[in-house]
Amino acid sequence: MERVTIERLGHQGDGIAAGPVYVPGTLPGEVVEGEVDGGVMAQPRIATPSDMRVKPPCRHAKSCGGCQLQHARDDFTAGWKEGVVRQALAAHGIEAEILPCLTSPARSRRRAAFSATRTKKGALAGFHMKRSDVIVPVGGCLLVEPRLASALELVETLASVGASRKSELSVLVTTSATGLDVAVTGGKEADPEMQETLARLCRAHDVARLAWGEDVTLTRRPPIQRMGRAEVVPPPGAFLQATPQGEAALVDGVRAIVGDAAHVVDLFAGCGTFALPLAETARVHAVEGDKAMVAALDKGWRGAEGLRHVTHEARDLFRNPLLVEDLKRFDAAVIDPPRAGAEAQIAELARARVPRIAYVSCNPVTFARDAATLVSAGYRPGPVQPVDQFRWSTHVELVVGFTCDTA
Ligand SMILES: C[S@@+](CC[C@H](N)C(=O)[O-])C[C@H]1O[C@@H](n2cnc3c(N)ncnc32)[C@H](O)[C@@H]1O
């Protein structure tokens, strides 16, 4: 039995004591006791709890792998996430004002990737248990919108109808303005009989669209997402911001940075989360790697009234970034890359000296690397706005503006 004091939280949310000893479910300052095996105290007894500790609000918190920080006060988690961003920048010698984190409320996630399997008694649906393949049923989950929480019954039925004995279904459920948008992978091939059963299920659960594997099996109503004045029907499984509140915070941040720019390039544009609202005041060129997402953005723009011109391009911005000569014509750029960041594209933006850059990031480490490229090229970061769409997790997003003096 060992007794240790937790010094800090690691990036996975585990407490870390000297050694290092990793202690899940603990907070800085806590004194904990337990067996240590391979540098991990898996079953700690909390001898001295932190005053930041709370009773996890969700009854599944102990077993479910969906949340890592339910045992911490919201203000602790917000401060910790702000610190993660500050430290990532400090590692590159960058100091910037870090604004208070904007955390989405409980029950606001509009999309969830549930797992489901067939069992001897029927089927089981939920999230994976912490560090395990076992599925925990998460009835009453506090993360997701109530419409999503109640979709668990549908997910379970989909597994009993369409999972093979050995495989696990991944069921991505998204709420839309017209009903649930469901995309299933890992299922059996849907023969005509199974397709009929699936159609019956979709009617019973008011599903707008069901995609099974590569195919859209059924569209009862196009699943509409509103982006500014536009109505967009994203391809199944396409990226969307996780909560409406998080999306609004990011769009507001981007709008404030772009300001009155007349011509904006939106890089890694997705289905138009930023491009379409920005088109209310500016001409926009949207660039995105996924052709189907670009087509959805274009259709949304064509169906909307009163927007400025939006052009678009499907392009791999890792291998084939927009070059200095492509970028010179823009007054502002928005860039929202995946977790890997945008090393090649940022280098071109820095060389082109686009006067305002709104950087939206879901990974403080790659963001800080890219920020360092901009700072060395003479850009100044404005205040960094952390945005937490994944409450009770270790994940953090942010939006920040960079400006430079033009020649
Ligand atoms: C974090 S998402 C942001 C999407 C959009 N800005 C939004 O807020 O909805 C990143 C986007 O980058 C796209 N992407 C990933 N790799 C890419 C690449 N190599 N070139 C261009 N786009 C890519 C993804 O398809 C995804 O739409």
SSE layout:
Elements: E1 2-9, E2 15-17, E3 21-23, E4 31-34, E5 45-48, H1 74-90, E6 102-103, E7 111-118, E8 123-128, E9 135-136, H2 146-149, H3 152-162, E10 169-176, E11 179-185, H4 192-204, E12 207-212, E13 215-219, E14 225-227, E15 230-232, H5 244-258, E16 263-267, H6 275-278, E17 283-288, H7 291-303, E18 310-314, H8 324-327, E19 332-335, H9 343-352, E20 356-361, H10 364-376, E21 380-381, E22 385-388, E23 397-403
Parallel strand pairs: 6-22, 11-12, 16-17, 16-19, 17-18, 19-20
Antiparallel strand pairs: 1-2, 1-4, 2-3, 4-5, 7-8, 7-10, 8-9, 10-11, 12-13, 14-15, 20-23, 21-23, 22-23
S-adenosylmethionine (SAM) binds next to loops.
Helix content: 25-40%
Characterize the largest beta sheet: strand count, sense, and whether it forms a barrel: 9 strands, mixed
β-strand number: 23
Number of continuous helical runs = 10
Question: What is the approximate shape?
Answer: flat
Measure the end-to-end span: 66 Å
The hetero compounds bound to this protein are:
S-adenosylmethionine
**Category by helix and strand content:** alpha+beta
Low-confidence stretches: none
Radius of gyration: 23 Å
Oligomer: single chain
Care to describe what's here?
The protein has 407 residues and is α+β, with helices and mostly antiparallel strands. It is 26% helix and 27% strand. It is built from ten helices and 23 strands. The chain has helices at residues 74-90, 146-149, 152-162, 192-204, 244-258, 275-278, 291-303, 324-327, 343-352, 364-376; strands at 2-9, 15-17, 21-23, 31-34, 45-48, 102-103, 111-118, 123-128, 135-136, 169-176, 179-185, 207-212, 215-219, 225-227, 230-232, 263-267, 283-288, 310-314, 332-335, 356-361, 380-381, 385-388, 397-403. The strands form four sheets. Strands 6, 16, 17, 18, 19, 20, 21, 22 and 23 form a nine-stranded mixed beta sheet that branches. Helix 3 (152-162) runs antiparallel to helix 4 (192-204). The longest helix is centred in the first third of the chain and has 17 residues, at 74-90. The protein binds S-adenosylmethionine. S-adenosylmethionine binds next to loops.
